[in-house]
Amino acid sequence: MVFEGISTYHDRLSRGFTTIKDEVSRCLAQAHSQGHLNAFMELYADEALERAEVLDQEVKSGAFRMLTGVVVGIKDNICYKGHKVSAASRILEGFESLYSATVVERLLEHGAVILGRLNCDEFAMGSSNENSAFGPVLNPLNSTRVPGGSSGGSAAAVAMGACHLSLGTDTGGSVRQPAAYCGLVGVKPTYGRVSRHGIIAFASSFDQVGVFGHSVEDVALLTTCIAGKDDMDSTCTAPQGENLALMGKGKTYKIGYAPIWMENPSLDPQLKNLLKGFLQQCVAEGHTLVPFEIEEIDYAIPVYYILATAEASSNLSRYSGLHYGTRDAEADSLESTLKLSRSRGFGSEVQRRIMLGTFVLSEGYYDAYYAKAQKVRRLLRERFEHVMANCDVFAMPTTVGPAFALDTKSRDPLAMYLEDQFTVLANLVGLPALSIPLGSDGYGMPLALQIMGGAFEDALMFEIADRLCDAIRQKDIS
Question: 1-478 has which fold?
């Protein structure tokens, strides 16, 4: 069952056609019936039903908040006081959070019901959700395929109808890519728009909380609720209360694109055709296409994996079995504690990225890799400052094709990393980006379009994406 949208849902609540408790019960039943997909790490069933009863009383009194009764799932790297959080890793198995992330506090403040915590790639490292220590998540649209990663559980939960919207984190595409694979809208806001306080870090200069939903309007509304300045996160500088969900319908826009990207040889042929049709539709709608020659995309993947692994190596050093993380039972000395706790607590992908990050930060290699990658990152930022100064949004593919089959790329790290070739750019330059459904392939699997906006121009990006979604729905561009 596809969620009808927050505004319609609130209208039905106000008219007495449904109750929040009924809706929470339905979501719980759906989560249980689709348990084989492994999307949920834990359901907060009793707590969610109790909160639903309280919110139903508010509704009876005519009091509505922005997210009253909206059922939301949270990724298992987002802290919620008194609840377990593990980042899908054995090293944090059984750990209970001592405080709530700012985004969780804001969800509750605006009347949401948090249904449970959602499976993900371990420490948000992956593109398929096959790296979870607690088993892979399966795609609800085809259980032989991946849902994308690292926020695969967050995408699957919304796609299978077990929650209305969900929160994930996006470090190099971990919201937009799963959204593309599951036929959803997924957004990564501007870096600094949403607080990272209470988020288990992967790469701090890249991480950003994002939102999954069925419509741009809902995703924009939830982003509005969780966004804004936070004293607990000095990098979060956007004003609180800014409405990002104002959807204008009567304008035309300048849409930038890179012709060479749209003809990338790795793109699925059906996706290429959809992208060509999309560009033609933009012209028919009165929008102006602005082509750019941007060859720097070739640097995005190597720069991202140098910098992100370096930050991961630093961030994950605290999980040693001493202060943070499970201590291995066989450890009997300082050295064995460090070795056994980390080698058995971390999965293979996490270990690989820690080793890569430690290497690029090591003496003799720092200048050759890390320092040079930072310089290239600065050049990319400058390049896209120029691009965004000359267009309203920039359009590109989200992924190279539809969701791939389980176990087809998990043994080839490079092939897996290349799945992110169109998404890491927004994280490198700190710009907002979202993925919207564009069509489907011959097997009915979703294909997607990515829209990137200017810095802190999230509202304009949502407005344009909503307009483009309307055009895509009204005319089959395939």
Answer: Amidase signature (AS) enzymes (3.90.1300)
